[in-house]
Hints:
CATH superfamily of the largest domain: P-loop containing nucleotide triphosphate hydrolases
Largest sheet: 7 strands, mixed
Low-confidence stretches: 1-11, 306-310
CATH class of the largest domain: Alpha Beta
Number of domains: 2
Bound molecules: guanosine-5'-triphosphate, magnesium ion
Number of helices: 15
Distance between the termini: 35 Å
Order of helices and strands: EHEHEEHEHHEHHHEEEHHHHHHH
Structural class: alpha/beta
Amino acid sequence: MSGTIEQKSLVPYTYKVVVLGPPNAGKTTFLASMFRKLSMPNPDINFTLRTTFENQEELNRRYDSIIKGKWLPGTDNISEWEFNCIVRASYTVLQISYLDYAGGKLLEPSSIPYKMLVEHIRAADVLLVILDGEKLFDLLQEKQGSEDFFDRDLINIFQSLSYSNAPIHFVITKWDILEPDYSLKTVKGCLLANKDFRNVTASQKNRIVRLIPVSAVGKGFAKRQPNGKMEKVSGKSPEPFNVEVPLACILVDQFAYRLKQQIAKLRESQTVPSFLARRISWRLLIMLTGGTAQFLQSIPTHPYLIGGTIALDRLLDFVERIHESAGKKRRRIKQMRKEQEQSLEAIENLQDAVDSAAKSCMHLVWKLEYEFSDSLLS
Ligand SMILES: Nc1nc2c(ncn2[C@@H]2O[C@H](COP(=O)(O)OP(=O)(O)OP(=O)(O)O)[C@@H](O)[C@H]2O)c(=O)[nH]1
Ligand SMILES: [Mg+2]
């Protein structure tokens, strides 16, 4: 997209996000809705997204069109969007490069855009695979032809995942259509009943794989007509649901993934006898193999998270406790929310700002895990 975003106080750390999804899955609508939500001050989130003025105008124009019930035209190529993640109006804590892709091209692996996409996939820090909620609804209703969802829509996407080792998140769009009739547990069951989907998720060693339900417009905004057309319900305003969550998951899980990779290396490093290395906690393993500072230096992640900061300690906690019970998670959410609010007040420098953004992301991820206990696939 056009223009360059302001460079002032930019930390040289860019997350490359590649979005993959079949045509009509809701990729571009989700992007416009996510930007709208995250570009406005919001007491629940400690950071905002900023882009070039040209991109801001374009994304706002798209969102306004959606509000009026005029859905967006299909995307016809790759479009790259750059966002700065800003804390307290002045601290740029990181940059995000977000690649929105024309779903139609994903069905044509011999095309030039598909080959270009593979290069982007190789360089990606995280892959967002967009699953069309409307198609999932048809699949659950056993509608004729709905099995195309796996065999036609997703097959090239699954194949393209083999070019990358980056974490994968599955985002279920149009949750407003599914939610009245189906729980995430049922949807997950339906996905895992497919052998290809099961194999793709099972092969994500060391990666955190999530299923994230989102709606760009929220409950009751649109209704699917018998002819398949999605029509706005008159007088309804959009209330986007969970659109900020995939980004929060990206930021936290990408770190978690790097951390897990490094832990796996330590376990095999022979510094500690292997029978011991397999049994002891991560923290003890890190201590016995050179200490936290040395360990963190070895992880290619955000430079301001490498400093033994509180947020980093919390991130370690986060990764270790990912499978704990809902009751414990509820207590943690409250605690994290408090810390998140306090951290915003206490910001004095860029490192504090990174801590604050990290806490905000962890809060959102924990909330997702609490509200949707089926969101973890690995
Ligand atoms: N009910 C509902 N419908 C949605 C939502 N998001 C998208 N849609 C519908 O899905 C259609 C396609 O959305 P797009 O965002 O253009 O899909 P895309 O994945 O970008 O498609 P391509 O650009 O062709 O790859 C829209 O025209 C809407 O009809 C949502 O959150 N809820
Ligand atoms: Mg599109």
